[in-house]
Design the sequence.
């Protein structure tokens, strides 16, 4: 009984943290748009020319564009620092997986960068064929006694490569 109560309490805690984080991200988004105008490149390293910035936050993948022409595409994966991580709610590390939708509707991995800590950014250049893709983070971590799957939390975004 005690243990059950503890589980419920921690679930509630995670829920309220998630709400806080979501609220924080909403506000931060506005700031980001302001910053993009004049002060890009404050993150670690420099975004490669012509790259598509992909923000990784709890719990969303936010590409600055949702499509690109076929050929060489460089994603600039950025684990945004703008949002606070509440205690051990997870999300201290994110990946960027680029997955292509196959004929049967499943996804196959085309390329990935992994283990981006807060504030880190990495470039990923891929030769992409036309099609439907998904940009995702498939990190699964254990927080307390719960497995937190970033993909299930909402870390995925559609991406189209045009012919
Ligand atoms: Cu993630």
Sequence:
């Amino acid at each position: 009984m005690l243990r059950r109560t503890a589980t419920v309490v921690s679930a509630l805690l995670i829920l309220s943290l998630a709400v806080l984080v979501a609220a924080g991200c909403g506000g931060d988004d506005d700031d980001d748009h302001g910053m993009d105008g004049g002060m890009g490149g404050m993150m670690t390293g420099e975004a490669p020319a012509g790259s598509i910035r992909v923000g990784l936050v709890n719990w969303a993948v936010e590409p600055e564009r949702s499509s690109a022409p076929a050929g060489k595409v460089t994603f600039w994966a950025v684990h945004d620092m703008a949002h606070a991580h509440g205690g051990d709610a997870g999300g201290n590390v994110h990946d960027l997986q680029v997955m292509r939708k196959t004929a049967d509707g499943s996804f196959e991995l085309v390329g990935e960068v992994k283990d981006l800590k807060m504030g880190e950014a990495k470039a990923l250049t891929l030769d992409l064929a036309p099609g439907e893709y998904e940009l995702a983070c498939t990190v699964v971590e254990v927080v307390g006694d719960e497995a937190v799957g970033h993909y299930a939390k909402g870390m995925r975004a559609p991406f189209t490569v045009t012919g």
